[in-house]
Amino acid sequence: MQTNFRLAYLIIGFSDHGSYNNSDICIYRNNKLRDGYIDANFQIQFDRSQDCQLEKRNRNTFSFRRRLATCDPYDIFLESGTTQFILAGGYEFSRNFNSDNVMKMSIIFEMKFGNLFQTDSTQVLEFESAHFKILADGARISHDVTTYWCVIKRIPVAVSRQKHHIIQIMPQIQKGNEQLVHHMEVFMCESDDQVEYSGKCDSLARFRNAQTCSHVVAAWAMGEEPIFYPPEAGLPIGGVDGKKYLKVEIHYNNPARLVDIRDDSGFDIVITPNLRKFDAGIMELGIIYSDANSIPPNQASFPLTGHCVADCTMKLSPAPVMRFEISSANHSAENLVPSLCV
């Protein structure tokens, strides 16, 4: 880190949710580096476990080291994918990190998005593989904090006539909108009586058959890599008896309430007519999205339990099932959720 002026302090931090509070930070001040975090009330706290290690410092530069996984509940686990960096610095240090207060006292105050690691997200594709895209196609992102945008599109005619395997699903995030695209999902529509659509998901209620677009195909969230299927398996799509429509749902998170933003994000789906040995599938476990399954405020612990009824479990194959990927989805409140280190 290099600056052209002498600062009283400099903060370099990491956020996994796009907000300054409940974030992990390293504070350089008085030629020393300290580990800290910003609590739920935007107050800077110094961490008991000092995991920010100063390596070297000169007149205008310094370098430091921090382990990727520290097992400290106030430290964020650093991994491949998009990382949200916090940068702040000024002439007078204050432990109050409220945005209005920091803006008055800071020379540097911003959140940036980037990759800590350069990973190889490519894979050698099979001969005769092809692809098609389902994109938002000019989605109008609302100035509201949350926007859900849905796209329903028919699969290519050639795919609908012959069974294919999906072998790769690539997120396509429009450049410049990386901080707005929170997560995306692909669903298969059980009913083929659909109307192609691109608009806010709330407006889909007038299309009754759109409610059948609920079979999860894939999900992606900020920071994740593309989805690759193992060489021996692919997700079936198309064919005479296959479903003909897919729905992509995109969640935009706009805490800064930016206006006049358009977006063309979505998925690039790679397919092959050369069927692999096994058909891949999706198994969803958990509980439905409902206010009845919300955790009340101020709970130290609160168990939520889901049950698989016999009508579901009796359909499971008696043969062994090979699991090759798992994703967990949950939403946390503004309090810090401790990490699990094993």
Please tell me about this protein's structure.
It comes from Dictyocaulus viviparus. InterPro entries: Cu2_ascorb_mOase_CS-1 (IPR020611), Cu2_ascorb_mOase_N (IPR000323), Cu2_ascorb_mOase_N_sf (IPR036939), Cu2_monoox_C (IPR024548), DBH-like (IPR000945), DOH_DOMON (IPR045266), DOMON_domain (IPR005018), PHM/PNGase_F_dom_sf (IPR008977). Belongs to the copper type II ascorbate-dependent monooxygenase family. This is Copper type II ascorbate-dependent monooxygenase domain protein. The chain has three helices and 21 strands. The protein is mostly beta strands. The chain folds into two domains: 103 residues, no CATH class; 153 residues, Jelly Rolls (Sandwich). The chain is elongated. The protein starts with 8 loop residues before the first strand and ends in a 29-residue tail after the last helix.
Provide the fold topology:
Blueprint (H helix, E strand, L loop, with lengths): L8 E7 L7 E7 L2 E7 L5 E3 L6 E5 L4 E4 L16 E9 L8 H7 E10 L14 E6 L3 E3 L4 E9 L2 H5 L2 E9 L8 E9 L7 E4 L12 E9 L5 E2 L4 E5 L7 E9 L7 E3 L2 E7 L5 E2 L30 H4 L29
Parallel strand pairs: 17-21
Antiparallel strand pairs: 1-2, 1-7, 2-3, 3-4, 5-6, 7-8, 9-20, 10-19, 11-14, 11-18, 12-16, 12-17, 12-20, 13-15, 13-18
